[in-house]
Design brief:
Largest sheet: 9 strands, mixed
Helix content: 25-40%
CATH topology of the largest domain: Peroxisomal Thiolase, Chain A, domain 1
CATH superfamily of the largest domain: Thiolase/Chalcone synthase
Radius of gyration: 20 Å
CATH architecture of the largest domain: 3-Layer(aba) Sandwich
CATH class of the largest domain: Alpha Beta
Structural class: alpha+beta
Number of domains: 2
Number of strands: 13
């Protein structure tokens, strides 16, 4: 089996449109949540979101004419891939047939779908754009990235709702580990802050209706009442470890393990015992060769919904055992970024790797009233020095999809 290194990272997020801006904002405890600006919210119960502000695709390697032919989720993905590929200096060093792309979206081009549906209903079928389908289908982030970088290896985006980018990275890791590719561009993107998504998530009782941005996304807090919708993209470049070393690439971390399971329980609610999520954590730790004694950090899914945070706490205890779970620092960055849906796992995986790199843990902001059912060390309020050797990044998606990545410090 081959080892797999991370040699490039890129991110577009509500708290930063570069990796270092994102990371410093996390460590400061910044919050990217604010009033919704994309549409009139007067008829909506939810009036806040974590929007990407001031995004200009021409500042991220795209021509304006090119960007107009892409849904916003594809633009975000292209921008994050542009950063990650520049960071990795991979271009031109790997045969086209050995470069894979696994960049996915949980929802895809819902903005295009909404806009073109309005045209259909108000102006008739002749006014629907001929680019409607190529802009809205969820594989187009991967397709456009593959075209940009001439990647002719496997290009197989996966969709697992909120676990999408974790599974995309995990499956790319397996492609390299088992010899099907030498390198991969992997991650996820989402751009769903629009009327139909806000209405749909609100009516299935997933979103917080709290109007105060500083009291809305509350992972592991007793007051939590739903997540805040976020957006953005997170992309990493994975590479066979010895190949990366031989060309002198900077290695952020090693992808050392991956676990993927399903609750097979409910389309939106997690298994209340957390067994599926626990098994994904256990699989990732076992593949990473964890002996139970290495300093560990967990970047939790931590959505701030009543069921998720309680269930995830149980899952961590099942996977680690009570004593190690209590000794392990855990944090969720969703108080800062909101829930980036299909991009969340990628952003959180990047945060986990940077925590390993710098020996600093991003905090769980807004954790003012701890829930007795969430009784582990969630690194409240402020960043904390801690040098872990392993980090887990956990993602739990609608449909019961569980994905966990284990990163080892480079």
């Amino acid at each position: 089996m081959k080892r797999v290194a991370v040699t490039g990272i890129g991110i577009i997020s509500p708290i930063g449109q570069s990796v270092e801006d994102f990371w410093q904002a996390l460590l400061r405890g910044d919050c990217g949540i604010g009033p919704l600006t994309r549409f009139d919210t007067s008829a909506y119960k939810v009036k806040i979101a974590a929007e990407v502000k001031g995004f200009d695709p021409t500042q991220h390697g795209m021509e304006a004419s090119e960007a107009r032919r892409m849904d916003l989720f594809v633009q975000y993905a292209m921008a994050a891939a542009h950063q990650a590929m520049a960071d990795s200096a991979l271009a031109g060093t790997v045969p086209a047939e050995r470069l894979a792309v696994n960049v996915s979206s949980g929802i895809g081009g819902i903005e295009t779908f909404f806009r073109e549906s309005e045209k259909l209903l108000t102006r008739g079928p002749g006014r629907v754009s001929p680019l409607c389908i190529p802009m809205l289908i969820g594989n187009m982030a991967a397709g456009n990235i593959a075209i940009r970088y001439g990647a002719k290896g496997p290009c197989i985006p996966v969709v697992t709702a909120c676990a999408t980018s974790t599974h995309a990275i995990g499956e790319a890791y397996r492609l390299i580990r088992h010899g099907y590719a030498d390198a991969a561009i992997a991650g996820g993107s989402e751009a769903s802050v629009n009327p139909i998504a806000i209405a749909g998530f609100t009516n299935c009782m997933a979103l917080s209706e709290q109007p105060d941005p500083m009291a809305a996304s509350l992972p592991f807090d007793a007051r939590r009442a739903g997540f805040v919708l976020g957006e953005g993209a997170a992309v990493v470049v994975l590479e066979e470890y010895e190949r990366a070393r031989s060309r002198g690439a900077h290695i952020y971390a090693e992808v050392a393990g991956y676990g993927a399971t399903c609750d097979a329980y409910h389309i939106t609610a997690p298994d209340p015992e957390g067994q599926g999520a626990a098994r994904a954590m256990t699989l990732a730790l076992e593949e990473a060769g964890d002996d139970g004694r290495q300093p560990l950090y967990v970047n939790a899914h931590g959505t701030g919904t009543p069921l998720n945070d309680k269930t995830e706490t149980l899952a961590i205890k099942h996977a680690l055992g009570e004593a190690r779970a209590r000794a392990t620092p855990i944090s969720s960055i969703k108080g800062a970024t909101g829930h980036m849906l299909g991009a969340a796992g990628g952003a959180e995986g990047i945060a986990a790797m940077l925590a390993l790199r710098d020996g600093m843990l991003p905090p769980t902001i807004h954790l003012d009233q701890p829930d007795p059912a969430c009784d582990l060390d969630y690194v409240p309020h402020t960043a904390r020095p801690w040098q872990a050797e392993l980090a887990l990044s956990t993602s739990l998606g609608f449909g019961g999809h569980n994905g966990v990545l284990a990163f080892r410090r480079a």
